[in-house]
Structure formats: C-alpha cells, structure tokens
C-alpha cells in the first residue's frame, strides 16, 4: 500500500516532509520548488500557509484552554502556544482532542514556573472538553441503587459514565477554574489550598464540582471497578471525616456512573448496562 | 459498540424527510446560531457542517445537529481527509466520516483538493498539491477509495492557492476536470476560491470558469476574503471567511448561475462569525440571484456563455 515512492523523484521535487517542516519552523527556508507566478519568489506566499497553520493551532489552544488563556493574558498565551505548536501538532483532524500534553508542557515551561497551579487548571479544562464530547449515556438514578438488596451493596460495582473525570490537585484548581470561567476575581483564593475536582455531564451540560475529603479516592476506585465496600474503606482510611452517605448522594447528583452490577458468586445483575 | 454495517446498509427507509439539497442559499452552521435558525421565519435552504466537528462521541454538538437535521436538508463538508496526501488515506478518519454520513444522511458530501496531514501530524490547513501526473493518479485513487467506503458520490472543491510548484505540468482546471472524469465525483465550485487564486496566480477568473467543467458542479461556495501583498508588492488575497462576500465574487456568481442554472449555494463565514441576521442577509442576496436567474433560465435564455 505504499504509494509515495513514485512522486519523490530526488533532486527535483521537494517531498511534503520538507514542506511541513518549514511550515512550523520559521528558521527554515521556503521549500524548493515552491514559486509564485512566472517563477517569482514565493517567501511571502509560503508564509501565508505558515501563518494559517500556526495561528489556526494557537486559536485551537485558546478555545480549549480559555481559563489558562485569561490567567496569563492573550499576548503571552499566544507566544507560549507557538512554542507548543512547534513541538507538538494534533495527531488527528479532530482538533477538539488537541492539547493532551499541554499541561506537561506548562509544567516544564520556565516562564510560567511561578504559576504552579497553571498545569492543573489546564488538566481540568482538557477534562471539561473531553466531557463535553463524551458519548451520551443515561446516568445511574437513586432508584437504581435503591433496587439493590442492602446486604449486596458492599459488593456493588459501578460503570463509569463516559463524561466523568476526577482530578486530584495540590492547588485550588476548582476555585481558580470556576472564578475564571464566571469572570470573578481570584483575589480571595489561596492557590495553594489543595482541591479535588469532579467533571461530569449529568444532564446536558458539563458540570465541575469540588469534592469533599476522601471522595476523590472513593470515586476513583469505583471508576476503576472496585466494589463499594473496598472504595468506602479506602476513603475512610485516607480521610477521617469521609462521609459515605454524602459521597453516595453526591455521586448520584453529579451523574458519575451509568450503571451498577452486583456479582454475588454466580448471579450477576446489571442495571443501565450501556449496551441497551 | 456500533451497529453492524450490514444492518446499516440494509436499512431501507431513511430517518429524515428531505435529504435533497434545494438549489437555494444555505449557511455554514455555527453552534451560536442554532436557536436563531430554528426560530427564524426565514427558512434557510440548507445547512452545511464541517464533518470533523461532529466526530466526537456525543454531547451538545450532536444534540444541536440532530435538531437542525430534523428541520433542514444538510451538506457534510470534510476538512480533514487530506485527499491530496502523499501517503495512504487515514482509514480511521474515513470510517469516522462514514459514521457522520450514516447518522445524518446529508444530501451532499464534499471534500477538498488539498492535504492537511503528514506523518501523523495534522496541520489544520488546506495545503496545496502540485498539478502533475503522479499527484493526479494518487488523488484519483484516494477519491475512488472514499466513494467506495461511503457508498456514494462526493464533491471535490477547488482550492484557494497562494503559490505554485515548479514541477506542475497542467492547469488546475485540467487537473480537476480529469479527476471528475476518472472518478465520477461531482464538483464543488468555490467562486471566492476562484477569485482568490486567479488574483494570486495572475489569471482571469472568467478564463478559469470558462475552462471549469460546470456541468459537474452540484454546489457552490461563496465567502469573504482578506487582502495582503506578495513578495513583489502585488495583491495577495487570503481566503479568510471572516467578512461578507466581495462584490466581485457576487458578480462572478451571477454570471455562473446565469450559465449553469440554479444550484445549492453556501455562504461560508467561519471567523469573526457575526450574528445570524448578518449571515441571513448574505443568504438572501444569493437567494435573490438564484430566483432571478431561475426565471431567465426557464424562459430559455441560456445564452450568456462565459468567455
Ligand atoms: Fe469553500
């Protein structure tokens, strides 16, 4: 299925690889074989494509990370995003999936070292967009849980809703994100107060919540398929004031799960299995 | 996970009523316009979406497009298939396009004569191809493959270009005409692209149009462009899609419709997107020309040949 061999007659035709390298690297010359009408010089002409590519991808990052954009300011964000675009292009034409490694980039990017919370804000924004595009699925309702024999509850396992994400942070990531997205001041927020965040889409809209102590462990374990009993005891070990009843009502309200199953030896009961 | 292909193929009845795209004005769909379009007394002829924006698994984009599709004919316009690519097409992406087409049953499906992906990197722009025999063969193979996978004809759109390749051996119109003849694909004539490329490459847009196989055109695009200058200080037009359609482009459009008769006509406005009434005004202007020319056309005054 290799179809490219015939067009790279060496010496005459510049392969597309030269074209693409020069697209994202302004230090490289205009590729060989690229001309204006009548063989005219084409540097400015080639720059149109350079500009389209870079500005297009920078704009995509502005759209994906609006809070990070506002936190550092437009001019700075665009300069920083250009550095990222040079290092990393989208892997597919689905632009809304771009920027998965942007948080790590921010952690390593020296000019924003002092904004230690920035990478986690970017992680939350990336999760927000993943939740926005996630598959539609009914959420687990209180009556689904109520239908389970109380003796079986510790053995219950849950199916993660496609839009649900937990983010554990050493910073006030939810407060910063929420204040920023609603246009409020960050003045009263202590950025170093650790917060756990929850992203979900219980109805139509993506919602972001701050989780109470222990809930992040509890929910992460359930999302990973551990039983309710295991998750509750692990959460209680981590946070003395973990409250199981609050955690369960919170997870129902936020729509973090799509189904529940009880596996007692031979019998398996499933509600809201995604296959129906 | 997904419904089996055989079942999808066996489906006889369609889920949507009007799949046929009328020879009227349409608009590129923007999320912020969905409610206004659904509530407007003016019923736009059709809407067109970029396929890639609906390749996510679910959520608000699909909810909005489903509401639109229940009320309007639809065109699906791919921007990421990279038909001009040096390498094989991305099969996963082609499957995603197929899924969108099966889900929304558009009246027309189109893609670009351009490339945008190389070595697993997506450049998010419509990059130019040389007009030579190896590229022609490859583009034809790719279009054959797309039409086979989708099980339908696609339309190929003429590009806006800013440069040439010194190894091109044929004209753009010759290149496109040969593709249409060999693959049986239809054509999407973007008249703003014609005007932009003609200005940038120093030929007359009417010459280009007289050489273009208008009989294969099933849709027209109109859009606004920006003005820059080239290396020699001459005008270099940029296909910006960020403003109203230029008067010179409206004039060409009038001539083309006079020549070929009414055809579905999309107003593209993708950057600095205005409120819906501004876009609607552009659509009304196209509707007006289509109606006027439809009258002439039916009276048999099919003289005004492009020369
Ligand atoms: Fe177009």
Strand content of chain A: 5-15%
In terms of DSSP E residues, the strand content of chain B is 15-25%
Radius of gyration of chain B: 19 Å
- The number of strands of chain A is 7
**H-E order of chain B:** HEHEHEHEEEHEEHEHHEEEHEH
The first-level CATH class of chain B is given as Alpha Beta
**Tally of structural domains of chain A:** 2
Gap from first CA to last CA of chain A: 39 Å
Oligomer: heterodimer
The best one-word shape of chain B is globular
Structural class determined from secondary elements of chain A: alpha+beta
Biggest sheet architecture of chain A: 3 strands, antiparallel
The CATH superfamily of chain B is known as Divalent-metal-dependent TIM barrel enzymes
Mean pLDDT of chain A: 90
Largest interface, with counts of residues having CB < 8 Å to the other chain, equals:
A-B, 57 and 57 residues
Number of helices of chain B: 10
Q: How many helix segments of chain A? A: 11
Q: How are the strands of the largest sheet of chain A arranged?
A: 2-6-7
Segments of chain B where pLDDT lies below 50 for 5+ residues? 1-13
